[in-house]
Amino acid sequence: MNNRKITRSRYRLVDLDVSNYRLLFYALLVGLVTGLLSSAFRLVLARLAALRTTFQIGEIGQAWQDWLWPMLFTFFGIWFSIFLVKKYAPETAGSGIQEIEGALDGLRPVRWRRVLPIKFIASIFSLSSGLLLGREGPTVQIGANVGKMAEDVFKQSSEEDNPLISAGAASGLASAFNAPFAGIIFVIEEMNGHFKFNFYSLAALMIGAGSADMVVRLLVGSGPVLKTTIFTFEELSGIWLFVLLGLVLSVIGIMFNKLLIGALDLFKKLKVSYVIIALCMAFIITAVGLYSEDMIGAGYSTISHVYNSSFTLKFLLALFIVRFVLSVLSYGSGVPGGIFTPLITLGVILGMLFGGVAQHFFPDLVPDPAIFGVAGMAGIFASTIRAPLTGLALSVEMTANYELILPLIFTAVTASVCTTMLGNAPIYSILLKRVLNKDESSL
């Protein structure tokens, strides 16, 4: 009898090992497929961005024909994106990260056959239209759905849902920003209440994120996404300035989250056709772009210009206000797109604005205001998403400023702790509750 029990235990251990090794292999496949899809996504967006520059608006006062084409380009992108989402896959609206968190809890379905094509195509149109949205939301949802697809195709048990979907989400974020460590940390930190943590599920995250990033670097390019100066930080007497910046960003995080939800409620109450929404948003984006291209779009070129151009503090303030409002409206319109990149752009602008003021009053403590621009990226992410480690990892990986980890820690921790004490909930938790409440009301 004892020998039989030992034999059975050994068989169970062998089966468990085989299952775990199979999970790691599937995580590799998920990462590779997500990397391929994300690479195609980024390359198409780059081509469309180049096409949009051919419709580049000139100066105010030009003939209406000179800016009619950009408005039509923007209108069609927004209209077609909303059309696809509303008709075929409503869960693809917005970033989709809240949908993934709900799926990991078994509260939301993962309809990958619908989501994968609709999220990919609709996001291409929405992001190329000039709206202030990022590519990371779509790639995270696409990656997570690839994880669910792997589970269905290879007929795995429902227990494999969680690690494969999580590995796909990590792969999606890693491939959006060339930031594999941030992708891993994001799932562990932001999805900690949804992610089933064990050694093999963590290994699956690492394999998925690493393989996806490898594919993107081979097909799209390697190196940090944002080309900035590599800074050093040696003046410890100025560390309190980063704490102060964190306090400012904690308030900004509360404002952003409340206004984002308010924008979603506003567009829901309007009850107008998506043609009207697309037309209004196209007019706003075109009119603002006529004044300054830095005020529209995801923000990559804006960040570069903020770091490398000598913008006045007055213009930085105007840039921050306009992009803040347009980021909220862009997400509220219901098109697919992430909020990471618009948030990071706002953090850079506010950080540069803060650094410029600080340099005026404390020139000995602030050798370059751009240091606060990098810190602003981590701080605003921590105050809105309530994920300080992810914000820290993203800021460092996207700019290669590894020597700024200490001041970034002070900024991110201060922003996340203070915004929590002020009652600000993580934005994706709020968005998930909205989705679940909508499901209940429709029953």
UniProtKB/TrEMBL annotation:
<feature type="transmembrane region" description="Helical">
    <location>
        <begin position="311"/>
        <end position="332"/>
    </location>
</feature>
<feature type="transmembrane region" description="Helical">
    <location>
        <begin position="116"/>
        <end position="134"/>
    </location>
</feature>
<feature type="transmembrane region" description="Helical">
    <location>
        <begin position="339"/>
        <end position="358"/>
    </location>
</feature>
<keyword id="KW-0869">Chloride channel</keyword>
<dbReference type="InterPro" id="IPR001807">
    <property type="entry name" value="ClC"/>
</dbReference>
<feature type="transmembrane region" description="Helical">
    <location>
        <begin position="67"/>
        <end position="85"/>
    </location>
</feature>
<feature type="transmembrane region" description="Helical">
    <location>
        <begin position="272"/>
        <end position="291"/>
    </location>
</feature>
<keyword id="KW-0813">Transport</keyword>
<feature type="transmembrane region" description="Helical">
    <location>
        <begin position="404"/>
        <end position="431"/>
    </location>
</feature>
<dbReference type="Pfam" id="PF00654">
    <property type="entry name" value="Voltage_CLC"/>
</dbReference>
<feature type="transmembrane region" description="Helical">
    <location>
        <begin position="239"/>
        <end position="260"/>
    </location>
</feature>
<feature type="transmembrane region" description="Helical">
    <location>
        <begin position="199"/>
        <end position="219"/>
    </location>
</feature>
<keyword id="KW-0406">Ion transport</keyword>
<feature type="transmembrane region" description="Helical">
    <location>
        <begin position="164"/>
        <end position="187"/>
    </location>
</feature>
<keyword id="KW-0407">Ion channel</keyword>
<dbReference type="InterPro" id="IPR050368">
    <property type="entry name" value="ClC-type_chloride_channel"/>
</dbReference>
<feature type="transmembrane region" description="Helical">
    <location>
        <begin position="21"/>
        <end position="45"/>
    </location>
</feature>
<keyword id="KW-0868">Chloride</keyword>
<dbReference type="InterPro" id="IPR014743">
    <property type="entry name" value="Cl-channel_core"/>
</dbReference>
<keyword id="KW-0472">Membrane</keyword>
<keyword id="KW-1133">Transmembrane helix</keyword>
<keyword id="KW-0812">Transmembrane</keyword>
<feature type="transmembrane region" description="Helical">
    <location>
        <begin position="370"/>
        <end position="392"/>
    </location>
</feature>
<protein>
    <submittedName>
        <fullName>H(+)/Cl(-) exchange transporter ClcA</fullName>
    </submittedName>
</protein>
